[in-house]
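job 3f2a | input accepted
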Amino acid sequence: MGLEVKAKSPLKPTLCIELANSYHGYIPTVAAHANGGYETWRAKSSYLEVQAAPKMVAAALRRLAAVAG
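job 3f2a | predicted structure (69 res):
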């Protein structure tokens, strides 16, 4: 996710920071969900829908585009 945001960001350089003062659990990719990968089941630490990762990337890119003008 971070590499995709960095590659598609209109602002260069873009630095993605994770695990900064909040805890939302592991964010599995769509492929990880399809393959039953690590922490794809619903739990206190992993409770996101299958399309959460691409939605988060799209939201980050929308915000970066807004900042870039």
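job 3f2a | The chain has a mean pLDDT of 86.
job 3f2a | closed
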